[in-house]
Amino acid sequence: MSLDTLPRATRNSHRRDRPPGRRWRSRVDVKAMPYALVSPYFILFAAFGLFPLAFTLYYSLYDYDLAGTVEWAGLDNYSALLGDDDFWRAVVNTVGMFILATVPQMILALFLANALNKRFRLRLAIRMSVLLPLVTSVVAVAVVFTQLYARDWGLVNWILSLFGVDPYNWRAERIPSWIAIATMVDWRWTGYNAIIFLAGMQTIPRDLYEAASIDGASRRRQFWQVTLPMLRPTMIFVVLNSTIGGLTLFSEPMTFYNGNPDGGSQGQFQTVAMFVYKEAFREFDYGYASAAAWLLFLLILIGAAINFLFVRRIGGTK
Amino acid sequence: MMISKRRGSLTAASVLAAAALTVASCGSGSTPEASAPASSAAAEPITIRVQTFGGGSNFGYEKAVAKWNAEHKDIQIKHENLTDQFEQQYWPQMIQWLQAGNGAGDVVGIDEGGMGLAKAHPEWWADLKEYGLESRKADFPAWKWETGVTADGKVFGLGTDIGGMSICYRSDLFKKAGLPTERDKVSALWPTWDEFMKVGQQFQSKVKDTKWADGTNTLYQVVLYQEAAKNGNVAYFDAQNTLIVDKNPAVKTAFDFAQKMTQQGLTAKLRNFTDEWAAGTQKGAFATLGCPSWMLGVVSGNAGDGGAGKWDVASVPGGGGNWGGSWVAVPKQTKHPKEAAMVADYLTQAETEASIFSDFGNMPSNTKAQQDPAVQGAKNEFFNDAPIGEIFAKSAASLQPVFLGVKHAQVKNAVESVIQGMDDGSVAHDKAWQQLIDDAVKAAG
């Protein structure tokens, strides 16, 4: 603050000497420039966020065939969706895969972060390395996992066979297909979340731990009673992020079935995002797909709200 | 390549929807090569992009394109095979490009399943009559020509290949099972489909790790087209474009056959044109599959050089039929319609189609090529020097086209999914037929 006063005084004295044109320009500079500088985000958001939202909302009220006609339909698309078994199957798949992927992922990321938060050799290198899976492209990950989970010559089935387990047809059976896709998601995102948890952990003041250890709290006790409650804001962020990512899951299950939005012969692992894609870009039912996209939006809001309430309770609210 | 461009978020899907419809200059999810290079400098050659689909050697254009490019310095062909799958990937993407007015190649391949819709949209296509190609009419059977002409008389598609039927089989595995390996004797094993299944059980009792057939689908298609020829040459739609899945006996017969195959455990449960199916071709997961002429190139492409001599071709139980066959068309959006028409003309000439047949097996639809002694006497090296000319060319003249409706591609995918589901166990056998009808109605709706 005190540093500011001196330059400002000199600046003001300069301003008095300036011709009016320059004064006007400097006013523009002060008033408009900040808006101009932040505008790229808002322009992009308007073009790629707001506009599509409004566009899909508008066309969700129409019977809109890409290779055909556009007719007013009112809420018909929504009522048809609510009675569409395929849509509900996609919802169940999405939520199922979300839970299968997110719960182990959060727990794993938390313990990984805790481990990385200690002192050890090559700490930076190891911390960086947990981010590596994130750098690989989703499709590359999915292609490799698709091979691992191949029915006839896949590594996973081979390992299972060593324990006398009959080979799974990972693309034909519902729960196994969910597990396969959940492992893909976890492979990619666990490290990312661990790093965010780690960053959160490092903002926790050391004196809290010191006080706890003076009070005789064990390392484990410190984790549960100090680290976890202090991490809550980070956790809310991570969980909301995972909710949005998990409920819009698309690339992994798409690649798992040769890039088809069917998600298995009978939609065993078709997610809502794939359902939207299929309706829009294969059946060319844009209105129907738009309505499904809006229901997905609602689903994410509900999911986020539930998770928010749930996470707020973690570690107790004292 | 489609997948990598599309992140699965709500926003991405909506952006794509918006992009496809409003921003004509960036056709949705368009691949980098999708924007035609503008030939600003006069000296620069014109590039004609030819887009096709299919597994293995697909349209078999590799050598034909190299030949053209060597002879025409001013017009260069760039051939892109976009994907293995027509109904699920290629055609939906193509429709988006055609509708958006941007993104499609200068010459595009269309499978028979898409021709109904293509014909219903004359505004998508350049009229090849304007480039003097009406003269090609005499080169093709009437039905092949007529399918490429719209209701208002616009010539948009030139015939590439036709179906014809055969069974591809692994002669090395037949030997292992103590079956005859020589193709005439193999053909004699199965005059009917029931006998085909009986031989299959015999085979599987001897060779443990290999299933008799690849899946339900290739053979289902073969039977469907055979039966369609007996039922007025219609499949899922009648000539008025009404859905007749539940009424056409051809569909039920083919379905019943597929069900029997899977109930008897004769399939490797692989869906054709998937990666696992391609791997299965190479690794001997199955001993037979339904092979229209164009499938030969797919099999040899998937099996790789290691498969040469192991595969052979026999005749199909229960007589001929026509599965598949394609056309090439010139989209209206092309910047070089004249040159594109020249390329389409070249790709469907008798000499081109004849050489594709001898190299890859795609049976020419060009009647002059069919009558070419080189075609009639052609042998396929990969398939143990099978006389494919004799097997396919002789029946070519008598092939009947099956009428496919505007929504055939969607219904076909729905029906195949149920049959595949029955095979992989996700659809109960007793409920499969009803579900097939329900899903077909939904897909046609």
From TrEMBL, chain A:
PROSITE patterns: ABC_TM1. CDD domains: TM_PBP2. The chain crosses the membrane at residues 32-59, 87-112, 124-150, 230-250, 291-311. Pfam families: BPD_transp_1. It comes from the Bacteria. Residues 91-307 form the ABC transmembrane type-1 domain. One of its GO terms (biological process) is transmembrane transport. Keywords: Cell membrane, Membrane, Transmembrane, Transmembrane helix, Transport. InterPro entries: ABC_transporter_permease (IPR051393), MetI-like (IPR000515), MetI-like_sf (IPR035906). Residues 1-22 are annotated as: Disordered. It is a multi-pass membrane protein. GO terms for cellular component: plasma membrane. Residues 11-22 have a biased composition (Basic residues). It is found in: Cell membrane. Belongs to the binding-protein-dependent transport system permease family. This is Sugar ABC transporter permease. It comes from Nonomuraea turkmeniaca.
TrEMBL record, chain B:
Residues 1-24 form the signal peptide. The keyword Signal applies. The keyword Signal applies. InterPro entries: Bact_solute-bd_prot1 (IPR050490), SBP (IPR006059), TAT_signal (IPR006311). Keywords: Signal. Gene3D superfamilies: Periplasmic binding protein-like II. This is Extracellular solute-binding protein. It comes from Nonomuraea turkmeniaca.
